[in-house]
Amino acid sequence: MTFQGIIFDLDGTLANTLADIAGSMNRVLTARRYPGHGTEDYKLLVGRGLENLVIQALPEYARQPAEISCCLAEMMDDYDRNCLVNTCLYDGIRELIHELVFRKIMLAVFSNKAEPLTLKIVSHLLGEVNFERVMGARPDFPKKPDPAGAVNISNQMGINPSDIIYMGDSDVDMITATKAGMYAVGVLWGFKTGEELRANGAKLLINNPMDLISVFR
User: Which element (helix H / strand E) includes 74?
Assistant: First the structure.
């Protein structure tokens, strides 16, 4: 296999963002006198964008359109102010990216997180990396698992989708990769299980970032 590019998911793949997501959502819930959730519980809620997270975090009786809209706005505001408190790269990510740059592999990031937040986090954690594209959720593209965003990135790279690795930690990422015609790599340090990744199309599972280099040998 000869791969020329890699598209990374952000949350649970490049960076551990869970504590900051949980903190922001729980502050919104507490302020509205709803029960919060344990940080680990948020692993089940992330992956399909912040609006979906808000809906799932609210108790069922509170999932009314007006309440969802207000909580989403409050969540976005709180998270924008607090998205870098605990968020950090996973061990080995920086080393992996530097090795890929050395090998002249094109790099991109594609997240279901709102694009301004995606850009903010990537710039803070990996500002020295020349990504071909950093793309988050935006109104002119459907969210993952729709493959349109991933295909758009491949077009910008000038690389056929079959020559691109899509690396992520969730069912959403594996489905996106498969629909886009990319090679789906599931990471086992993120928010979902290996069984879920494999069931949704992962061609390869890796235990640590540098394991990815094996596909280039």
Answer: helix 65-82
CA 206, 95, 151, 144 dihedral sign is positive
Query: Where is the domain boundary, 82, 109, 133?
Result: 82
CB 183 within 8 A of CB 1: yes
Give the Cα-Cα-Cα angle 53, 184, 132 (nearest 5 degrees).
Answer: 80
d(CA 98, CA 215): 16
Q: What is the DSSP track for 131-156?
A: -SEEEEE-TTSPPTTSSHHHHHHHHH
Dihedrals φ, ψ of 153, to 5°?
-65, -40
Task: Find the CATH number of the domain harbouring 141.
Answer: 3.40.50.1000
Which stretches does DSSP call E strand in 97-203?
106-114, 133-137, 164-168, 183-187
Domain count, the chain: 2
pTM for this prediction:
0.92
- The residue among 70, 82, 94 whose CA lies nearest residue 21 is 82
Of 49, 65, 82, the residue at which a domain comes to its end is: 82
Does residue 59 share a domain with residue 116? no
pLDDT digits (tens, 9 = 90+) for 121-145: 999 999 999 999 999 999 999 999 9
Single-letter code of the amino acid located at 211: D
